[in-house]
Amino acid sequence: MAEPVLAIADLNVRYGQSHILQGVNLEVGTEPLSLIGRNGMGKTTLCNAITGLVASTGSVKLAGVELVGRKPHEIARAGVGYVPQGRRVFASLSVEEHLRMVAKRGSDGWTIKRIYELFPSLAARKKHGATQLSGGEQQMLAIARALLLRPHLLVMDEPSEGLAPIVVENLIETLRNVAKEGVGLLLVEQNLGVATSVSGRIAIMVTGLIAVETTSAELLADEASQRRFLGVSSARTEAVPASS
Amino acid sequence: MTDFLTVCLNGVTLAALYFIVASGFTLIFGLLRTTNMAHGSLYVLGAYVGVSVVTITGSWWIGLLAGFVAVALIGIAIHLGLLSWMAGQDLRQALVTIGLSIIIADLLLAHYGGITYQIPPPDFVAGSISLPFVVGGQYSAYRLFMIVIAAALGGALWLILNRTRVGMYIRAGIDDRDMLSALGVNVSRVFLFVFALGAGLAGLSGVVGATALSISPGEDGRYLLSSLVVVIVGGMGSLGGAAIGALIIGLAEQIGLFYAPTYSIFITFVIMAAVLAVRPQGIMGRPA
Fold this sequence. Notes:
heterodimer, A: 244 residues, alpha/beta, Rossmann fold, six-stranded mixed beta sheet, four-stranded antiparallel beta sheet, 10 helices, globular, disordered C terminus, B: 288 residues, mainly alpha, two-stranded antiparallel sheet, 11 helices
């Protein structure tokens, strides 16, 4: 069997006295994986550990290449694209500058032209400052600049947070398209509807550990688990269409 | 009337020098938020390098280049050896760079002695130009040339920051350093480049200043202070702000010196206090 896109083994993160990630094991293949869990369970810390923004011990392998101990820019160049929580677009840069700054030479893979085809609303606002965009457009920009790295894996931290429902539907569509391009996708979400719509596989994080690995269909049918791990029931998420 | 116009022209040419010195300071202190209290020492260092190189080669331009390159290299050493180990720790940076400026001042005193040097200007601006509206009808061509240097430097820095890839890295890195590194950019190297550029500009301004005025021990404090005031009045990290700040301070100093010599320095700091009271982020600064 080929190497998984991402293989995490016994990953630990400590901040001073507190032990945030307590031996995480997780694999992402060519199929998207959603990671869900309540606030404070360590989901964002896991993203930061993968991208090298916090120090960790253990193993994170991207297509067999060890990432732990490498600097964030080396990890990004190795092929990990990061779409952080809160989008974190650069206030001093225009939309076009965001893209030009990251874009690589050559016409293989993602180019600025293809990005504008995928996100026409960004093309219409090239010269605008990034913080003048709406929340949904900022999210598209954050995804766009990560795609321009031509990553093997996209790590996305709560992309649907703070977006209007109609924009969320658009986002789900985009994420499905991205996954079809052969980019590995690790989607961290609090919104069960988004998570189950984008990926068939779901991992649930509880206090720094992967507590359960399941499928979208099973989780949607299991209200007790939803309540236990997320504090929600599917009644709240039915508005969003499930993955076909 | 000619008195006033002459004083104003003196103010503008002094402002040009202040801008050239402060442009490096605004990169390091305003953009990188590195507290470099050795900026004045880097100015003096560049001036002495200029003195030596111009004496040996006879070329002002080579002296200018040498002042820039030598001090940029020293800036790289300071950043790698000292300041990068204390990122974000203002007080520690301030103390270390003050210590550094004392060491540099003593080393220069040991080597060059306490005498005053002046660098001869390049030939094409060596004399004076006749200007009907100034006192005596003549004005130093080199002092006017400093305005050209300041404008060219300001334009070049603006282009680097706003029209190049490195400029995008710099602006993005200041907005959100971690995010930029997660996009594959080696932010440490970008910031090292900015520090080296800022230090090099201090060295270059030393050559420019030692040609216009002179260089002697103790000048470091004066230019550190002028840079601080210019950047604080104009707004941290803004090139346009540094230009406006330099104009205000240069004019105030010269007008004060002529019409109220006793209060000249006082006026400069009244302006700074007033700006801080009304607009703490400086005239062109963004609120923190």
